[in-house]
Design goal:
Organism: Aliiruegeria haliotis
InterPro entries: ACP-like_sf (IPR036736), PP-bd_ACP (IPR009081)
Shape: globular
Largest sheet: none
Number of helices: 3
Protein name: Acyl carrier protein
Radius of gyration: 11 Å
CATH superfamily: ACP-like
CATH topology: Non-ribosomal Peptide Synthetase Peptidyl Carrier Protein, Chain A
Domain Carrier: 1-80
Pfam families: PP-binding (PF00550)
Helix content: 40-55%
Structural class: mainly alpha
Protein backbone atom coordinates (compact mmCIF):
# COMPACT_ATOMS: atom_id res chain seq x y z
CA UNK A 1 0.00 0.00 0.00
CA UNK A 2 1.37 3.40 -0.95
CA UNK A 3 1.43 6.32 1.45
CA UNK A 4 -1.31 8.01 -0.58
CA UNK A 5 -3.49 4.88 -0.41
CA UNK A 6 -2.90 4.75 3.35
CA UNK A 7 -3.76 8.45 3.66
CA UNK A 8 -7.00 7.97 1.75
CA UNK A 9 -8.00 4.95 3.85
CA UNK A 10 -7.16 6.85 7.06
CA UNK A 11 -9.25 9.86 6.03
CA UNK A 12 -12.18 7.72 4.93
CA UNK A 13 -12.24 5.91 8.27
CA UNK A 14 -11.70 9.16 10.17
CA UNK A 15 -14.75 10.74 8.54
CA UNK A 16 -16.83 7.65 9.35
CA UNK A 17 -15.90 8.05 13.02
CA UNK A 18 -16.41 11.84 12.95
CA UNK A 19 -18.97 12.47 10.19
CA UNK A 20 -19.08 16.24 10.75
CA UNK A 21 -15.49 16.52 9.45
CA UNK A 22 -14.98 17.55 5.84
CA UNK A 23 -12.20 15.35 4.41
CA UNK A 24 -11.29 18.09 1.93
CA UNK A 25 -10.50 20.52 4.72
CA UNK A 26 -8.28 18.18 6.75
CA UNK A 27 -4.62 19.11 6.39
CA UNK A 28 -1.84 16.54 6.62
CA UNK A 29 -0.59 18.15 9.83
CA UNK A 30 -3.95 18.37 11.61
CA UNK A 31 -3.82 16.53 14.93
CA UNK A 32 -6.86 14.29 15.32
CA UNK A 33 -7.43 15.32 18.94
CA UNK A 34 -6.00 18.83 19.26
CA UNK A 35 -7.14 20.18 15.88
CA UNK A 36 -10.01 17.91 14.82
CA UNK A 37 -11.38 17.49 18.36
CA UNK A 38 -11.74 13.72 18.46
CA UNK A 39 -12.08 12.38 21.97
CA UNK A 40 -10.44 9.22 23.29
CA UNK A 41 -13.44 7.06 22.34
CA UNK A 42 -13.31 8.42 18.78
CA UNK A 43 -9.62 7.51 18.62
CA UNK A 44 -10.39 3.96 19.79
CA UNK A 45 -13.15 3.69 17.19
CA UNK A 46 -10.74 4.93 14.52
CA UNK A 47 -8.12 2.36 15.54
CA UNK A 48 -10.76 -0.39 15.44
CA UNK A 49 -11.99 0.77 12.02
CA UNK A 50 -8.44 0.80 10.63
CA UNK A 51 -7.86 -2.68 12.02
CA UNK A 52 -11.06 -3.96 10.43
CA UNK A 53 -10.37 -2.32 7.07
CA UNK A 54 -6.62 -2.91 6.78
CA UNK A 55 -5.95 -5.77 9.18
CA UNK A 56 -3.38 -3.68 11.05
CA UNK A 57 -3.04 -3.96 14.82
CA UNK A 58 -2.19 -0.58 16.30
CA UNK A 59 -1.01 -0.93 19.89
CA UNK A 60 -1.79 1.92 22.25
CA UNK A 61 1.82 3.19 22.42
CA UNK A 62 1.63 3.68 18.63
CA UNK A 63 -1.43 5.94 18.72
CA UNK A 64 0.89 8.95 18.54
CA UNK A 65 2.10 7.56 15.19
CA UNK A 66 -1.38 8.03 13.70
CA UNK A 67 -2.07 11.42 15.31
CA UNK A 68 -2.08 13.27 11.96
CA UNK A 69 -2.89 12.16 8.42
CA UNK A 70 0.79 12.59 7.47
CA UNK A 71 2.01 10.43 10.35
CA UNK A 72 -0.73 7.86 9.79
CA UNK A 73 0.03 7.48 6.09
CA UNK A 74 3.70 6.71 6.84
CA UNK A 75 2.89 4.39 9.75
CA UNK A 76 0.16 2.44 7.96
CA UNK A 77 2.06 2.06 4.69
CA UNK A 78 5.11 0.77 6.60
CA UNK A 79 3.04 -1.66 8.68
CA UNK A 80 1.32 -3.00 5.58
CA UNK A 81 4.62 -3.37 3.74
CA UNK A 82 5.73 -5.86 6.36
Amino acid sequence: MTREDARIAFLEELVKVAPDLDPGSIADGDHIQADLELDSMDVLNLVAALHERLGVNIPEPDYVKIATPALASVYLSQRLAG
